[in-house]
From TrEMBL:
Protein name: AraC family transcriptional regulator
Domain HTH araC/xylS-type: 234-330
Provenance organism: Pseudomonas zhanjiangensis
Pfam families reported in the protein's UniProt record: Arabinose_bd, HTH_18
Keyword NAD appears in the UniProt entry: no
Length: 330
């Protein structure tokens, strides 16, 4: 199942709306992400998951319950055409089957599922494979948003029977009640919430078969285009990642991708990125991994990432993360 590697600036914009009371706060929230305040004005701009997670990590230092706060602001309309297709579905169960059919458009960090166990239906989020320190944050944001979507699809609050979370109870656990007004279990085997399964047969108040078919057709086309672009971008990333010590230039990379440099540049621009940004992102990811291994001196890491001298690597890492490599390692 395809998970999105690119996403919109929607979550980043929400974070700044919540926390950026002053210009210097906005700069601190965006530090190390490569995102500029001016980028937020572009509806077409796409960013990588790494960039989004960097902003989230910066923001968590200011607000521990940020995931819950963001989840309660990610409405069904935040998911574009897919959200409107779900709203116009015939029943609640139809809407859920549609949402699960297009995970790339849903843009989740998880594999989502809907299972019926006896009289309860469970919505679960599993297979998280990103920054471990941000797993709880992403679970909170994901499940809180899905609960909000349920309420908006139905036009009334969906009654919950239970909610389970795989991590220890956080200090702000009382704030979970705003999204999950039901018995809570932490240190559980899964991340999920449950509701009476018979609600899946409920007709939706905004059901419209004509609108639904029209929007669904556009979702199929958007998904095909998106997944094709994602697969192409993944090939570009793999080519660069396998040659970080001696990265190919734009022309050599274009030759490996069987296109002209101009076509490569245009495709990357359409995906909201460019050659140097991709190279920096991959170097940054690899650098963080190597800095976590104490037997790798800075000079060796610089060489591994294709820098001619340690000073150049230190300068680049400071630009990517906002801190020096030695401080990051400490």
């Amino acid at each position: 199942m395809l998970h999105a590697h690119l996403t919109t600036l929607h979550v980043v914009a929400l974070i700044l709306e919540l926390l950026a009371e002053r210009p210097d706060t906005a700069e601190a929230l965006l530090a190390g992400s490569g995102i500029k305040p001016a980028d937020l004005a572009s509806g077409e701009r796409r960013i990588t998951r790494t960039q989004e997670l960097q902003v989230c990590a910066n923001a968590l230092a200011l607000r521990a319950d940020l995931g819950l706060q963001l989840g309660r602001r990610l409405h069904v309309s935040s998911y574009g055409l897919l959200g409107y297709a779900a709203l116009s579905s015939a029943t609640f169960g139809d809407a859920w089957r549609l949402l699960l059919q297009y995970p790339a458009l849903l843009g989740t960090y998880f594999k989502l599922d809907l299972t019926v166990e006896g009289e309860l239906a469970w919505v679960g989020a599993a297979e998280y494979r990103h920054e471990p320190a941000l797993e709880r944050f992403n679970v909170e944001m994901c499940l809180a948003s899905l609960k909000l979507i349920c309420d908006e699809l139905l036009g009334q609050p969906l009654p919950l029977a239970a909610a389970q979370f795989s991590y220890p109870q956080p200090a702000y656990a009382k704030r979970y009640a705003a999204s999950f007004p039901c018995p809570l279990q932490f240190d559980a085997a899964r991340n999920a919430f449950a509701f009476p399964a018979d609600w899946l047969r409920r007709r939706l108040p905004l059901a419209d078969p004509v609108t639904h078919l029209e929007v669904l057709d556009r979702c199929r086309k958007q998904n095909a285009e998106f997944t094709t672009r994602q697969a192409w971008l993944q090939r570009v990333r793999e080519e660069l990642a396998s040659h970080l010590a001696e990265p190919p230039g734009l022309e050599a990379l274009a030759q490996q991708m069987h296109c002209s440099p101009r076509t490569l540049r245009r495709h990357l621009q359409e995906l909201g990125t460019h050659y140097q940004e991709l190279l920096d992102e991959l170097r940054f990811e690899r650098a963080k991994t190597l800095l976590g291994q104490e037997d790798w001196p800075i000079c060796r890491i610089a060489e591994e990432l294709g820098f001619s001298e340690s000073a150049s690597f230190r300068h680049a890492f400071q630009r990517w993360s906002g801190v020096a490599p030695s401080r990051f390692r400490a």
